Each structure stands twice: as C-alpha cells, then as structure tokens.
Amino acid sequence: MQVSPLANPLATVAQLETSGSQIDGIPRHLENSIRFAGAQLTQAAGILLRLPQEVIAQALVVFMRFLVGPEGGSLAEFDVQQVSAASLYTITKLSPYPKSPRSIINVFAYLSTLGTPTPTPDQLQQGKAEQYYVSEGTYQSRRLVLSDTEQRILKALGFNVHVSLPYTLGITYLQALDVFSHPRASDLAKRATAYLNTALLSPQMLYLTHQPGSLATATIYLAAKEVGIKLPEVEWWEVFDTDREELGFLVVGMLSVGSFAEEERAKWQGRKVPMTVDELEAEMKREDSGE
C-alpha cells in the first residue's frame, strides 16, 4: 500500500515507551531536557544558516525521530549537537538550500561558545557566526564526525527522511473555512503558524505522533479562539480527519510547551544543560551524589 506524500511515518507505542538513551541508563527527565535543548539549538543553527523555517522544521523532525525508540540513537553515545548538526546537514542536502560541512561546523562551533541553546536575537545575527572559524585540524575531525553521524541517522531511520509539514495544509484549511474574508485573517494565519513552530519543541513530540492535517487543524482551532474569529459551529475539524479527542490532546499539548519551557529555564538556571556525552556523565554523577 502506497503511503500518501502528505502523511508521515509515526512513532509506534514501543518507540514512545523507551529509547536508546533510557536503555543506556539516562533518566527520562534528563533525556527530555537535553532533547528540548537540542531542538532549540537546531532552530538557532537553522536561523544562522539562513534556512527557511520549513527546512528547519524538517531537520527538527529528523532530529526527534533519531532519538526515539530502543533502536534509536542514544545520548550516551552521541553529543546532542552532533545529532542536531547531522540532521540539518542531511535535510539541507535534499533541499534547494544545501549547506557545506564547513558552514554547519562553523555555526555549531559559534553556538557552542555561547553556553546556551537559546541565543539572544543579537547573538543570532548571521554576521557574528560567519566571522567564526575553527582550525583546519578541528574542521577535519568534526567533518568526519558529521559524516558518521549522518550515516547513523540514515541507518536508524531506514534511509527514510521524508517529512511532510502542516504549514501549507493549514493555509488550505483556512481557505476551505472561508477565513480569509475576515479582516483579521492574517492575524489568525500568523498565530496558527506560530503554534506550528512551537509544536516542533513539544516534549510530547507531537510531530512524531500526529499527522500534518491534525496538527494544522489544532493550530487553527487555537489561533481562532485567540484572535477572536468565529469558526463554523459544527464539528468542522472532522472534515479534516481529526476527531474531538485528538483535537483536545493536541490543543493541550501545544499549550503546554510554554509552561514546559519555563520549568526547564527554572530547572537549569545558573547551570548548563549537558550537551555532550562527557557533560551528561558529569550531570548524572552529580544527581547520583545528591548535590
């Protein structure tokens, strides 16, 4: 049976229950923190690489896919920035916006000097990253790591890095709902897109558990309530193959990203989220000792 190009392979229950990282003894709460920080790092690197949001989103989905399931990559083996860089490298090679290994390595080297996965707007100015270079020896060693990690990602995903996104579907759904006749239609479209971007960072990994059409439907529902545009009183979401239960789950999940981000910020205040295997091991020892 041929899979629709508008559909994505979704994570199975077994993949969601455990991961390579947890099998290697990494606590789930620590894995969640590192995965969240890695997703933010991927977003920041994509901006510095001048990539459109659609390409960054595809890389984020590949990044998440690699880190789920017992056969997925383990943070006990891979530095999270390795996975982030390789995910971007893999996706850009397949896009109209290919980036050289040197560009990607320089950008991640620059970001590593900031000590945070969430740079300020000033730190995200492309000129700052473009002025940053690593030595030739460092470049050659990191290029080998980049290529090796790319191959590991491809193998873990069965060489299937197809990612359908909900952005265009969302616009199509808004047209079907005749929203663009409303004077605040552009506000609704912007808010829906913002929710789609936020969902990429969700701890529930919503892009791995739900199809693009359902994601688009939930963001339209949220954005319409926020902007104050009244949608049809009938259960219009069912027209887009989304039932009430799924809609409710997605709405709660998307709204929870903000509180999760605040909890993470408070949890790591004054400390750095471990972004390398060595830093992760040190953090686990710290937790075991009760410090």
From TrEMBL:
A GO BP annotation: regulation of transcription by RNA polymerase II
Molecular function GO terms recorded: cyclin-dependent protein serine/threonine kinase regulator activity
Listed name of the protein: Cyclin domain-containing protein
Naturally occurring in which organism (per UniProt): Bimuria novae-zelandiae CBS 107.79
Signal peptide as annotated in the record: none
Source organism superkingdom: Eukaryota
SUPFAM superfamilies assigned to the protein according to its UniProt record, in alphabetical order: Cyclin-like
